Amino acid sequence: MTVQTISGSLVDRALVIALEVHTGQVDRYGQPYLLHVLSVGLSGETEEEQVTGFLHDVIEDSPDWTLKRLQESGFPQQIIEAVDCLSKRESEVWEDYIERVTTNALAMRVKLHDLEHNM
């Protein structure tokens, strides 16, 4: 099943993508990485924060998912921009990454949920 054939809310579509990308991945402690993504998304206070939380690592962790593909899957521009800000670039230093995250209010809120869960 492709995301384009899934009806339902943005949350539903984001969850399907998160399941597709993160199933079988584990974190550095051997726990299913999907639990982290779900926790970040469920920490969101708005639908935008939830959707962005579910998608926050998709671009980094899957060569099959791009910002363009998210756009083609019907996600609004503000979510795509936030996911872009949250996607660390190869060889990017932490300070540059955080500086980019802080340019986007939605990305910043989701990053705080991400950091909180990682602590």
Provide structural commentary.
Helix content is 62%, strand content 0%. It is globular and about 35 Å long. It is mostly helical.
Query: How many E strands?
Result: 0
Shape: globular
State the major sheet: none
C-alpha Rg (nearest Å)? 13 Å
How far apart, in Å, are the first and last alpha carbons? 35 Å
Q: Strand fraction band?
A: under 5%
Q: What is the arithmetic mean of pLDDT?
A: 91
Q: Percentage of helical residues?
A: 55-70%
Give me the number of helical elements: 8
The arrangement of helices and strands along the chain is HHHHHHHH
Classification by helices and strands: mainly alpha
> Which residue ranges are poorly predicted, with pLDDT under 50 across at least 5 consecutive positions?
1-7
Produce a short descriptive summary.
With 119 residues, the chain is mainly α. It contains 8 helices and no strands.
Give the arrangement of secondary structure elements.
Elements: H1 10-22, H2 33-42, H3 47-55, H4 58-61, H5 67-72, H6 77-86, H7 94-101, H8 105-118
Helix pairs in contact: 1-2, 1-3, 2-3, 2-8, 3-6, 3-8, 6-8
Features:
119 residues, mainly alpha, 8 helices, 62% helix, 0% strand, globular, disordered N terminus
